[in-house]
Amino acid sequence: MTVRINPSILSADFVNLERDLGHISNADFVHIDVMDNNFVPNLTFGPQTVSRIKSVSTVPLDVHLMIVDNDKWAPGYAELGAESVTFHVEATVDPVAVAQRIKQIGARAGLALKPGTEFDTVRDIAGSFDQILVMTVEPGFGGQQFMADQMEKIRQVAQFRKDTGTSFWIGVDGGVDENTISLAAEAGADTFVAGSAVYGRDNPSLAVENLRKLAQEHRHHEENHVEA
Ligand code: DX5
Ligand code: ZN
């Protein structure tokens, strides 16, 4: 199983984004947290900024939308060139239709679940996505504590993937660091977002490699998993 480490630029220096992107060129994707001060109580950036990031980034873009009205806004992030667009089920009227539009444009479509959203509520639509992103903090801010009680949800998603022979990626976002990444990996996550545990370290690139090594060492073993 391949593991992916996606640093979140929420913890980067917003006036030196190009420089800080250069510090994580060994990452798999750069995670971009789009917040609208409505779905979450924080405001970051929108399509114009993401488009500029796209034009300078050497790694693909993993956009995480924490906004309302994804039916209207989410496909636009695929259009501007993001390789992956993940939106919250809690803020979307027709998640499957949005996923189809994102995929038609040529990006991966991800579905994010807040800590209070059970996997059972999306079980019927999960197969339409390229990634299920399990939040291990309440979305809105970096630097929060990892919610270990979400590991059961990751195990359910991994079990579903195995039972159905699907191949979506299982992402985890929030409080992932050198101590908690093993828990998420053992539960079945393969795609790890880390903000403060990358940009809060003296050497972000080394932090990426350390996290990758830890995730690989603790990865969940699943004989029947079909590799994406
Ligand atoms: C939180 C964001 C996360 C955030 C993670 O709402 O979705 O991507 O950047 O930051 P850390 O890794 O510091 O918890
Ligand atoms: Zn995020």
Overall description:
The longest helix has 14 residues. This protein is of the alpha/beta class and 228 residues long. β6, α5 and β7 form a beta-alpha-beta unit. The relative contact order is 0.17. It has a single domain, classed as TIM Barrel. It has an 8-stranded parallel beta sheet with strand order 1-8-7-6-5-4-3-2. The model has no long low-confidence stretch (mean pLDDT 96). The chain has 8 helices and 8 strands. D-xylitol-5-phosphate binds next to β2, β8 and α7. The site of D-xylitol-5-phosphate has 22 residues, from β2, β8 and α7.
Observed structural traits:
8 strands, alpha/beta, 33% helix, 8 helices, TIM Barrel, 228 residues, 8-stranded parallel beta sheet, binds D-xylitol-5-phosphate, binds zinc ion
Summarize this structure briefly:
It is built from 8 helices and 8 strands, in the order βαβαβαβαββαβαβαα. The chain is an alpha/beta fold.
Write the layout of secondary structure elements.
Blueprint: E1 4-7, H1 17-22, E2 30-35, H2 47-56, E3 61-66, H3 70-79, E4 84-88, H4 95-105, E5 108-113, E6 131-135, H5 151-164, E7 169-173, H6 181-187, E8 191-194, H7 196-199, H8 204-217
Parallel strand pairs: 1-8, 2-3, 3-4, 4-5, 5-6, 6-7, 7-8
Helix pairs in contact: 3-4, 6-8
The structure holds D-xylitol-5-phosphate and zinc ion (ZN).
D-xylitol-5-phosphate is lined by residues 8, 10-11, 31, 33, 64, 137, 139-144, 173-176, 193-197.
